[in-house]
């Protein structure tokens, strides 16, 4: 971890840079897979699954028995944890429901808006040894709350042709039953184009490797929308003299262990805390199973000493972190000053892991500086908001002349005529 | 206008197709302009403006005098109309403000979310003979309400180097003062990369021709977000026996006059209304200054007779129109059945022109079937929603074991450790 003390403001622009990602274009690969899926559907999916996941599937869809069996394959304690997290996530996302408010604009002119679910959504859950069942909750719960009619979950099978039971149990807990054993570009292609067994959807959610990311980007050419542009995960922690170096180090490392391209930024006003935290990182790192990944992430990470918490907040706003932890005493005074961040954790006991799993907030958040212009996933991500208006005869009499004047000035006489006829 | 009676459901998929747009790739052109702007900034902007707008500018920024002078150059009646529309749009968009709700998740765990403005936004207003000042209101008002700090407006100058006074007056009315005389790809490049005089922004809004559209798409490579993907404008009208054929025809034509690639769809359950409306279209078309454009749009537009209003609504949901007009008696009973639409107009007196200009709703809406997965522009488009959480020591004691179990099951021991240290 690089350490910098009191950098000049002119140097900040360099300090907020993210680690460069390889910009290898995968577009040709993606196009060719999409084309195969378009032409050969399920049979192409099975061929790709054999090639990349080393398993020959006869059936892509996870059976009801497999889903039900998941309960027997994970501990009761984990089941209870998943249910508890589900309840919290549901509670928080329920609070995001918007109820129509009729607005009386002028006599005879009423406008409002109403939310409608995106009818068909696809959720992608990556494979690998660690099953990301928490992401099933984070995407499935708001999809259900929104009322999406078709929720299609795709995730790659292991070499036995199985899906990890924690993923199936989380899906079952949420109420998702359409689960398909397919991953990679081919999964995104199936969700975009549809096959004999997998229905096409309107919006695709979920994390993935560079192939999945490239495929999600390409899916947009087919009028599909996606949750968020991709980028490496990151946390920025601001600590004052009362922070706990051991907690701060653990939070930095929990982000660093995500991937070698993760980035962690540590800002403090206290030199002793800085030194102690760096030492703690060194000690804790040794204990981590994923220490090699975390160490590489720390290589392009930075600790910076600043003169004031205000300066730390300014820097953070410029960096626009995915996760922001305020390990400071009077965090209450700084909430209003936060301009760009995905999700914010306040005080010494609000660790990022809480939001990653179980406190209720969503963990699908804008990375790579996108917190400047994107929100994280929420109930809003699964609905459209449609505006409605009702003008009575009185309403158009009132407002009509205004519309006529404006339409005429824009030289759209058809627009004007639609009003004039009604005023007659 | 093609007329179809009682189509089979199996034919619907063909009937909802939009007119094909030329898919000429403008990417090379766009890249080369972006590159010129990156290297030469303002001087490249001036060269492009000379080439495409036929005017040699010394200053790109519209002066305070020019903005102030706009008041003298448009009629008092138009000024009043713009101010009235502004008040209505402001009233409606103000109602979209979200106030933080603290959610008690568990003892010691509180979560909420707060909106923050996107700090820097760019608004693009196309040029041409007709000044689209209404779009200045539709984008500028929510940007101001959201609290965006920098609102940069770009619009191409005429051959005298001037901006239409109605655009300047609308901007002034909204409170926008950063206005630049630049259009086309070069404007989007300037907003994306920044130049000596034009600041770079985080999100770009506004309509435009195929060049502007291609440039907005490319801007996303620079981590810029955009309002909506582009497509031709469209309206779908559903009418029953009590509808007024003259009103319906005028509404269809007001959409058709937008552009040759516009599409209008007319659904009715009443054959007499169908015939009368087609006749009315013929008559009214002759009177329109933009009759040639409208006639071409009608060439790829369709009128369909259905058996029931329910069937019309089903078809409309499948089509997912940008604008939907329900010229039916008991529209109240059908509001809940509308699943996909950008903006909905209820009853015989709610013409689309009202929403285009002055009733308060936004006119920047999802086209081309994007109403299935996108909302129109609203206050939400100019903010990010940031989640916050505060866990007390009690909170982490409560929830900690759940988080530990889940993190361990995902094999993220660093995540678990961040909790375990706090439980000690």
Question: What can you see in these coordinates?
Answer:
- 2 copies of one chain form a homodimer.
- Chain A is α/β, with parallel strands linked by helices.
- Chain A folds into 3 domains: 24-226, Nitrogenase molybdenum iron protein domain (Rossmann fold, 3-Layer(aba) Sandwich), CATH 3.40.50.1980; 231-372, Rossmann fold, CATH 3.40.50.1980; 393-423, no CATH class.
- Helix content of chain A is 44%, strand content 17%.
- The first copy, chain A, contains 15 helices and 14 strands.
- The first copy, chain A, has helices at residues 12-15, 27-53, 64-73, 76-94, 133-146, 165-174, 184-193, 210-219, 245-256, 271-287, 291-299, 309-319, 352-357, 393-409, 413-423, and strands at 2-5, 103-106, 109-117, 120-124, 150-155, 178-181, 203-205, 225-226, 234-239, 263-268, 302-305, 323-327, 343-346, 383-391.
- In chain A, the strands form 3 sheets. The first copy, chain A, has a 6-stranded parallel beta sheet, with helices on both faces. A 5-stranded parallel beta sheet of chain A has the order 6-5-4-7-8, with helices on both faces.
- In chain A, strand 7, helix 8 (210-219) and strand 8 (225-226) form a beta-alpha-beta unit.
- Chain A is globular, with a radius of gyration of 25 Å.
- Chains A and B meet through helix 4, strand 2, strand 3, helix 9 and strand 13 of A and helix 4, strand 2, strand 3, helix 9 and strand 13 of B.
